[in-house]
Amino acid sequence: MAWVPGYNPAAAPSRGFSVDTSNRSDVVSFWHAVYQASEGYAARVGWTGNYTSTAAGAEGNTSAAFIDDTERRLNYFRAMCGVSANVRINSGSTVYISPSDTNVPAATTTKAEASQRSAFMISRTYSSGSTNFALSHDPVQGCVGWTTAAWNANANGNVAQGFYGPGAINAFVQENVPGLSTWNAAVGHRRWTLMQRATDYATGNSPGSYTSATNKVVPPASTLYVTQKAGEMDSSVAPKFTCYPAPGYFPAPLNSQFWSVTYPNANFNSAKVTVTSDSGSAVVATIVSRNAAYADNTLVWQMSANASVQQVADDTKFNVTVTDIAGEGIPSSLSYSVILIDPNQLVAAPVLSGPAHPSTEGTAYHVTPVPGAETMQTGMFLKHVGTWVESAEDPTPAVIPHTDPGYNFIDSTAGYTRTGSKAFRLASPPYDVLSASIPDQSFELDREILAGAGGKLNFYYRRSYMAAGSRLAVEISSDQGSTWTGIGTDIAGTANGLPDNGFQTSSVSLPASTMPVRARFRFYYSGNGGLYTFDDARAKPNGIFIDDISTSGCDELERTAIVSTTTQTSVIFSPATANATLEAGQEWWLRERAVLGGHPFPYGPALVVIPIQALQLSGQANPPAGGGASYTFVPVSSADSYKLEVETLGQAGWTEGAEDSPAPLVQDDTSASYDLISNKAGYFSTGAKSFRLGLATAADTDDSFTILRTFVPIASSNLMFWIRKGKMSATNTVSAEVSENGNTWNPVWSVAGKTTADAAGSVQTISLAAYAGKNIKVRFAVRKGATANMAWNATDSGAWIDDIHVDGAWSSMSEKDTMLPASSVIVRLDAGTAGQPLQSAVPVRMRMSAIKGGVAESSGPYFTATPTGTPVTGFAGWVAYDYPLLLQGFTGDDDGDGLSNGLAYAFGLDPTQSQPLTPSLVVGADQTIQLSQPLDAMRTGITYGAEWSGDLVHWSAAGVSVQMVDGRVVASAPVGSGSRFLRWAISQP
Asked: Given pLDDT bands bounded at 50, 70 and 90, which one contains residue 184?
């Protein structure tokens, strides 16, 4: 099967591959879906043998899944190098027997049986301490576990010690392990493994062991049976060049110091190799082998250190040329390029674009997918203060463990939990024979942390039996776990290795960042000092226990959902897709990532959005006083039309008193038992009257009056009034209240009553800063408390209020309504919709309402804009004021008509509607070629230019001039002697 970008089966097959190495996405997908599918093979080896015997059967067998892992890895390399990737491993084929063999097994012996015995012999011979060396193609009979079958496999196979399964395939192909054989420089293992016409291989594997009680190591070993019998060579395969590393994109982790080119029967005795970097600089390449004694003829050269790297930060290209190749019918030269890549990095980041203020009901966003991705995923993250505490208690903690199954990561050892009944435990596993080390143990917090200034990661720890050689490191990753950096000071085991008396606390500073980080705890052996493994004292748990992890001074991005689709070019952000209620004012981070080969790559740049409610307007707070600006709003489903209400505001210079003239603008909601307007002497501030509030009966609970004025405070506005209280129950209260909708009222000031009257009135000043920019009304009320009202006195009960006003506020001076069609998502504020010209520094207040069935529904919130006489100019101002939905910048093309947004600006076109340029091209009388376009005036903030060419390949601005002539912008260039083409070149300084 051809491996193509976007293809990723649920279970990777083990053969039948082909891959296009000229396609980076194809190579990356192939790496993750096929190469990585064979990683973790140690857990699947399923070896049934034992190292206590050498009898038949002691070599054991391995699982079918493990054999598939090895076959898949072999075919992966073959596919990458362009040879048949349909070879079989352990097909049941019997051994190859040469007439010259000195040791002959039974002819019915399979290659797989012989290879398994061979690997067993290699492991056992090493572990016995014998001087007989089994890592040979002619092992002597003194090797432990020697049999004729083992000898046959050694004679006909690639043999390895310290590796097995897929790991051995890597060693055979990369040839990066000195001492693996005596012919590394001739890349003999690689040549047999990648032999072009081969179809049948077999593998035998011994996983090795470590016994802590005796400190005995049995190393792993592997044998790959490579000799093909008659009929196992595919004669239909035409000879061709096979290169390693392969031409095209190639994963850097598979690079080698020995590069090679193979061609069956080619003569490389006089061949020369030249290698250059992408910049053309020479790269040292030293030929080390022209050996033609086995497999397919191969030329090998050793690359310099800078070209042998197995890690690259950026794609790194090398150009190879091989010349002076001899042989009948064989090309005499070969040129190709190898581009080393990091298969865990993409060169194209996914981009998510759309409005900064989505609806709380749902909004669509555009996705620019990564080429070759089989899936695009949108992560939806809600930002909030990080108040979490991570313990090991149920329900499942938000952690990702990377620990050995031989001990309990979630542990409930008495005395080793700080709170609850469980804690996280990290302990060293025994020596691992495959990695030849003590494997690290770690767990990652499954949280996205935004650290502020002074942010810290806090946790509690208690060391159990933990020798001085062990360390606990705290690490963070800013690339979503691809790389990790240590922070703070590692915690080492105690000098005597004994447990702590109790839990200790640790606070590690987190570097402040505008991007989220992940954190992990890693337990490792430093290589110096003592070591306890979890096998050393199972009755006395060793290692370190960690509990109650938290942050301070940090926010968290809480992932509420990941939305996946195989054909994603858009995604809906809504309560359903986010799996959460979207509330106005929340901060959400929408992050897009690609999945190639089943592997989710890191998220691209975040799009930070703040939901707003339906009908809420968004746009510039300071539009141009002359021309106005456009504003977007969140539409309402099934609306028949919309109404835009615009109010021009003026300074609210009123004072509300109770005099006859002017008549008070108030709504009286007081008891009929007394009059709201009072002329009691001494109980008014100015004039002869004031407003009176009281509770006239025992059953009366509240009396109030409302100022019938709507106004908009500014940040410095204060509500001011004069008040004098008469006799009242001490549990009564007098309050001033504010409402934005006339239904819900919030107190901004209150005072308790008292049984004796105030000796004099006083002026109260209450800040309205919390309501700046909001449309509000004010009312005053007296309310009953927990006890009965005092007996009513017609002359001196209650409270008297006078001279009510608000300083610095604005109120409506004029209003204009404009009807809009149901398809509208954008409105224009200008002299037409405002009903009068916009004036600098004079606020304008707008709001939308939906019309359904001819009835206006509830209005959206007000948006207050204050026009300015010094607006933003140039392309940025054009976008901000005229096209707020334009997302792709100066060089982008939002409407997809082939003209950039910058060109649309330059020539007065609508960038949201497909519109062609209407240029004129003539030869002028002054022997210039002239390109012109109708235009009322040149736009500011850009440079009008043009370029000419004689071949449509090379372009020049030499001799070009641009000017306005009679309503057209005209670019002139020299005619020249041949063909001449002219094009616009518009740029931003």
From this structure: confident
Residues in the chain: 989
What are the backbone angles phi and psi of residue 201, rounded to the nearest 5°?
Answer: -125, 170
Single-letter amino acid, residue 409: F
- Fill in the DSSP letter of residue 397: -
Distance CA 208, CA 794 (A): 104
pLDDT digits (tens, 9 = 90+) for 186-238: 899 999 999 999 999 999 999 999 988 788 899 999 999 999 998 999 999 99
Half-sphere exposure of 51 toward its Cβ, with a 13 Å CA cutoff?
Answer: 23
Question: Encoding tokens for residue 145?
Answer: 């576990």
Question: Which 8-state DSSP code applies to residue 741?
Answer: S
Identify the CA nearest to 939 among candidates 978, 882, 892, 898: 882
Query: What's the CA gap between 320 and 308, in Å, rounded?
Result: 14
CA pair distance 110, 92, nearest whole angstrom: 6
Q: What is the largest CA-CA distance in the chain?
A: 134
* Among candidate residues 450, 442, 394, the one with its CA nearest the CA of residue 420: 394
CA separation, residue 608 to residues 514, 516, 611, 724, 824 (Å): 12, 13, 10, 52, 25
Residue type, 353: S
Q: What is the pLDDT of residues 51-70, one digit of tens each?
A: 999 999 999 999 999 999 99
* SS3 (DSSP) at 32: helix
Residues linked to residue 398 through DSSP beta bridges, in sequence order: none
- What residues pair up with 802 in beta bridges, in sequence order? 722
Q: Extract the runs of DSSP E, i.e. beta strands, from 464-517.
A: 470-477, 485-492, 504-509
For the packed helices 166-174 and 64-80, what is the interaxial angle rounded to 10 degrees? 30
CA distance 755 to 731: 10
What are 944's two structure tokens? Answer: 């009008």
Please tell me the distance from the alpha carbon of residue 518 to that of residue 444, in angstroms, as a whole number.
8
d(CA 696, CA 672): 9
Instruction: Answer positive or negative: Cα dihedral of 577, 580, 586, 588.
Output: negative
Helices (H), 95-229: 111-127, 148-155, 166-174, 188-193
| Geometric angle at alpha carbon 696, from 693 and 698, rounded to 5° | 130
Burial grade of 302 (CB within 10 A; 0-12, 13-18, 19 or more): middle
In this structure, the number of other CB atoms found within 10 A of the CB of residue 56 comes to 9
Question: Phi and psi of 941, rounded to 5°?
Answer: 80, 5
Q: In Å, how far are 170, 183, 308, 491, 967 from 77, measured between CA atoms?
A: 8, 20, 18, 42, 66
Strands 242-244 and 298-303: unpaired
Q: State the burial class of residue 474 (Cβ atoms within 10 Å of its Cβ: 0-12, 13-18, 19+).
A: buried
111-127 vs 148-155: helix crossing angle, rounded to 10: 100
- pTM for this one? 0.77
